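[job 4417] fold queue: 2 targets
>>> target A
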Amino acid sequence: MRLAEVMAEQQLSANALAHKSGVNRQAIANLLNGTVWCDILTLVDLEGALGVPLWPDHTRWSLQDSSEPQQ
């Protein structure tokens, strides 16, 4: 849903976003239709091309140090 919102705000078609991001146009269409889930690499490519986060706050997630015991 966020992808469609940002594309509308930036007046980008699936073809234009595909060209800008390097993500296949059909993959973008499938994401917009909700027929597939986005993988992390595609998400990074789309966010980079659009200049906005599509997955809220994922860049602020902290990674637990694997040497520390889990609670």
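>>> target B
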Amino acid sequence: MEERTWSSRILPGPHGAGLSSAEAREAARNILAGLHTSPAGVDNVLTVVTEMISNASRHAGGATAFQMTARAGTVTVQVSDCSLSPPRVQPWAPDTPGGFGWRLVNQLATTGVLLHRGGKTVTATLAVAATVQA
């Protein structure tokens, strides 16, 4: 049986405002619909997408590209930005707002960072289950 792959790549608009979490989540939902991903899997992917785009906006001047590739059983999310500083897990401070995003992404996915001439690309790969089709 042939393995199917779904992929989406989004670049920022002409005004350079960066990509919004809403745009990235919409692309992710469209891809996940084709996979018949379980509700828990959809939630996990959307959480990772939101956190990665938010972190690029908050810490790296905004996302310069978003790509998501899905195959049966796995989803890979890639977010690029202009910063050469890799993401880092913040010290645990439950009484302080924020600082949990990268920790959460690492709990839900296997992550990696590739530094390149234009900045970096952060990758998160998640295992996702499909719903049972009747």
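[job 4417] complete. Note on B: DSSP finds three helices and five strands in the chain.
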